[in-house]
């Protein structure tokens, strides 16, 4: 009975009338109920909250809120911190230099004072000839490593069963080169396109770095790791599981300006050793 009474009170209709005293007539009138008032207030609150959220996210107003930092502001803060650190070191060097000059001019340190430093060793006094034992070891090592293709020969059998997806449709503009320290491939940016995971895995890093922009790292089975550098935006957080071919980041749109390099740098690592992505992915 109590439930029915409460429900009837919520649904009970009341007439709201606007009366014109001068003309002695009703200008406007409609029926409302307590339930209608409650629902109207609830949806009005959702509408206002949604509008405020869009204003904070899509406009610079969010930067004025304490504790909220947009992605662009975070990039600039990191860049400014690096510049401040380098300028601080230069200022400290100049201060030490001026302090030394001031000490010499005040007579506190004689101008001809030198600090004992190791004397350069003449090359004539160094025996650089290899011994017979060293020559034998070098010969054996060169013979043993002659047919060792970096570290990939031991990885092929373990990774043959893995089907790796192409992370983007862009063309490779710089290939893998172990000798020069380029441990991956650079893929040209396709404006507005998503960056896809090459295989199932778990996100172990998802953050902005000063040298490589937004970077995301995935841990896969068979002890393989994939690294995606120079992303414009990241879509996954640390600890999230992804499947092969799922979007984990995006490139910038054609109308957006980027301060980072306009290409994706992809690396594949297996047991701590770099792999050539072009060997395992059909670009």
For the largest beta-sheet, the strand count, sense and barrel status come to: 8 strands, antiparallel
Number of helices: 6
- Sequence of secondary-structure elements: HEEHHHHEEEEEEEEEEEH
Query: Quick check: average pLDDT?
Result: 79
Sequence stretches where pLDDT stays below 50 over 5 or more residues: 114-118, 147-155
Per DSSP E runs of 2 or more residues, the count of β-strands stands at: 13
Helix percentage range? 25-40%
Structure description:
Helices cover 33% and strands 24% of the residues. It is α+β, with helices and mostly antiparallel strands and 283 residues long. The strands form three sheets. Strands 3, 4, 6, 7, 8, 10, 12 and 13 form an eight-stranded antiparallel beta sheet that branches. It has a three-stranded antiparallel beta sheet with strand order 5-11-9, with no helix packed on it.
Features:
single chain, 283 residues, alpha+beta, eight-stranded antiparallel β-sheet, three-stranded antiparallel β-sheet, flat
Explain briefly what this protein structure is.
The chain has 283 residues and is an alpha+beta fold. It has helices spanning 2-11, 34-58, 71-105, 132-145, 156-159, 277-280, and strands spanning 14-20, 25-32, 172-174, 185-188, 194-196, 201-209, 213-219, 224-231, 233-234, 241-242, 247-250, 263-270, 273-275.
